[in-house]
Amino acid sequence: MSNADNSQERVKLVVFDMDSTLIDAETIDELAAVAGVGHKVAIITEMAMNGKLEYSHALNERVKLLEGLSVQKAREALDRMPFMPGAHELVKFFKSRGYKTAMISGGFTIATERIGNALGMDHVVSNELIINNGCLTGEVTGPLTGHGNKELVLEKISREYGIEPEECIVIGDGANDICIFKRARYAIAFNAKPILHQYADVVITKKDLEAVIPVIEALDV
User: Fold this and answer.
1) Which of 20, 50, 159, 203 has its CA 20 to 30 A from that of 195?
2) Average predicted confidence (pLDDT) for the chain
C-alpha cells in the first residue's frame, strides 16, 4: 500500500464495492438467471473476477446475453438480493467515525440506487443498462465500463474532499478492485477471490461485514 504523507485524522473516505461485498449476490448473475442465461454468464463472471478475462470485455459479453429481458422482471429479481450480513452496521459505524461513504460498483443503477439509498451512501457510482420499450437492449454505458475505471472514480471523489486516494480505506472482493487496492491507504479484501488477497492489508473470510469493525478500531482512525 502507498503511504500517505498526511495524518491519520485526514482519512475520511471509505469506498465499498457492492456485489458480494455490500450485498450477498452478484447483480449480473441474478439478471442472467431470470433471463435464462445464468450458466453462460456465471462462467464469464467467475473468469473476470479471478482476473482471467479482461474486465470491459467480460462486462460487454455478459450484458449482451441479457438482451430482451423485461425491466419489470429485472427489477423484481434485483429487489430480492439480500444485503451482506453486517452491511448496515458497518456503514453506520463508519458514519459514526465521521467518514464519507462511497459505493463504486461495476454493477448497474437499476440495483445500486436502491442499495445506496438503503445504506445512506454519500456517493454511488455505477453503470447503466440501456433500455428500449421496457426491455434491456444488451448494451451498457457508464463510468465503470473500462479496465481501471474504479481508480479514476476514486480519484474524482477523493478530490472533492481535498484528500488523496492514498488516504482512503477500500473494501472489495474481486480482480476489478485491484486498481483501487493499490492506491488505498488501507485495503480490506472481504469475501474475496484469491487474486485480490496479495493486494490487501487484511483478508476477511467470514461473511459478516461487522468483522471489519475491530480491524478499523485497531487502526485508530
Assistant:
1) 159
2) 92
